[in-house]
Amino acid sequence: MYWQPDIETLPAKSLQELQLQRLCEVVARVAATVPLYQRKLAEAGVRTDDIRSLADVHRLPFTTNADLRENYPAGLLALPRNEVARLHTSSGTTGKPKALFFSRRDVDQAAELIARCLVMTGCSHGDVLQNMMTYGLFTGALVMHYGAEKAGLMVIPAGPGNSERQLMLMQDFRTTVFHTTPSYALYLADFMEKAGVDARRDLALRKAFIGAEAHSEETRRKIEGAFGIDAYNSYGLSETNGPGVAFECEQKHGMHLWEDNFLLEIIDPATGEPVPDGERGELVLTTLNREAMPLLRNRSRDLTAVIPEPCPCGRTHRRLTRITGRADDMLVVRGVNLYPQQIERVLMGVPELGRNYLIHLRGLDEMTVKVELAPASFDGRAENLLRLEGRVAEKLRAEILVKPRVELAAPGTLPVSEGKARRVIDERVL
Ligand code: ADP
Ligand code: ZN
């Protein structure tokens, strides 16, 4: 099932022609309207008519988080203010939020892309989407909301938190799909278990869209197992609409990036040079279809790779592998480079452990991993707990090469955030 079959299955050559035409338009427009790009293009010695092939994108300047912040609030706006329909901001996970503008057409186009994603996962009229993302400035909830309505689903704008009410809504309105962060999905699974709700018996859930935070395949499986559903990885960033940038199809193997809307590059984050297809690097996107705030070569800081093989679903837009974290997330502990994702993968693979965890760094590189026990394995017997702590610490050492202290916590005792989870507390005195 396709939402826009012609564009979703457009042969690669036609897709590239469309991209080139749109790229030229975008460069011409920002060169005419945005002082930052006027300056950057001049510094790079690029004139608008220099862009003759897609390979010429490498001559264009990057846009960085610093550019977005320095030009806050409206320095990158490419339209007159009275043509802006909506303001969003990023979550601000890694600093001051960025302001993002949408024209009326941008709002509609973002919804189109979401509709493509939802139909791609087999959703349609008759599905009931419970949207548990934060409504407000964050793109995650509203963009999904409009797209799901466009695709003909019924939307419950539940927002995050209040797990008892979430379960009530799911039961009373026969929710078939929910949209949330991996951390909240895991929390809700624990809550549901404690409340004695059996998803397979009591709920009508079929699917979930899981996004906004990096998560591992093990976490996906844990969510799927707890609710008896298919969980699809949903990727987006506020600079490029929010959700709906790349999404898994029913194959659940890589996320299709909508290449008619975004020009995709993967670069080496250290040198800025392109990496060969299939190799991991930083995702860089140029928006090809945004009016209010088009961006050239926006550096996402997210690490991924292109899956070059065609997808059996028939869509020609290339797939990205699961985001393995942000370049900014990398921790250096006792000289070893590691990502919180690696720790998560290990923890989610241990059945006795629950779903909530925290990485605490203190002093001179002391690392403590605090993790909740699964409700079923919480018998409070000290000798069992000690043995489990030792086993988990050993497993972590094998994965990250540093042996942390492991502290087990009772189910439901570690902090839960309403928006994106905060997994790392770094209080080192380095
Ligand atoms: P921020 O969190 O940086 O303030 P946003 O609210 O725009 O900004 O969130 C976008 C970021 O969230 C992405 O750059 C990425 O790091 C993360 N993200 C979103 N979806 C996913 C996903 N499915 N997998 C991994 N990371 C994701
Ligand atoms: Zn596919």
Descriptive overview:
This protein has 430 residues and is an alpha/beta fold. The protein starts with a helix and ends with a strand. The chain has helices spanning 5-8, 12-33, 35-44, 65-70, 104-120, 139-150, 163-172, 182-194, 199-202, 217-227, 340-348, 382-400; strands at 84-89, 99-103, 128-131, 154-156, 177-180, 207-211, 230-237, 242-248, 255-257, 262-267, 281-287, 298-304, 306-307, 319-320, 331-333, 336-338, 353-363, 366-373, 405-409, 424-428. It is globular. β15 and β16 form a beta hairpin. It contains 12 helices and 20 strands. The longest helix is centred in the first third of the chain and has 22 residues, at 12-33. Strands 4-3-5-6-7-8-9-14-13 form a 9-stranded mixed β-sheet, sandwiched between helices. Strands 19-18-17-20 form a 4-stranded mixed β-sheet. It has 2 domains: 1-328, 3-Layer(aba) Sandwich (Rossmann fold); 330-428, 2-Layer Sandwich (GMP Synthetase, Chain A, domain 3). Bound molecules: adenosine-5'-diphosphate and zinc ion. Adenosine-5'-diphosphate is lined by residues 90-94, 211-214, 233-238, 300, 302, 323, 326, 420.
Quick summary:
The protein has 430 residues and is of the alpha/beta class. It has twelve helices and 20 strands. 32% of the residues lie in helices and 24% in strands.
List the helices and strands and how they pair.
Blueprint: H1 5-8, H2 12-33, H3 35-44, H4 65-70, E1 84-89, E2 99-103, H5 104-120, E3 128-131, H6 139-150, E4 154-156, H7 163-172, E5 177-180, H8 182-194, H9 199-202, E6 207-211, H10 217-227, E7 230-237, E8 242-248, E9 255-257, E10 262-267, E11 281-287, E12 298-304, E13 306-307, E14 319-320, E15 331-333, E16 336-338, H11 340-348, E17 353-363, E18 366-373, H12 382-400, E19 405-409, E20 424-428
Parallel strand pairs: 3-4, 3-5, 5-6, 6-7, 17-20, 18-19
Antiparallel strand pairs: 1-2, 7-8, 8-9, 9-14, 10-11, 11-12, 13-14, 15-16, 17-18
Helix pairs in contact: 2-3, 5-6, 8-10, 10-11, 11-12
The structure holds adenosine-5'-diphosphate (ADP) and zinc ion.
Zinc ion binds at residues 249, 251, 256, 311, 313, 315.
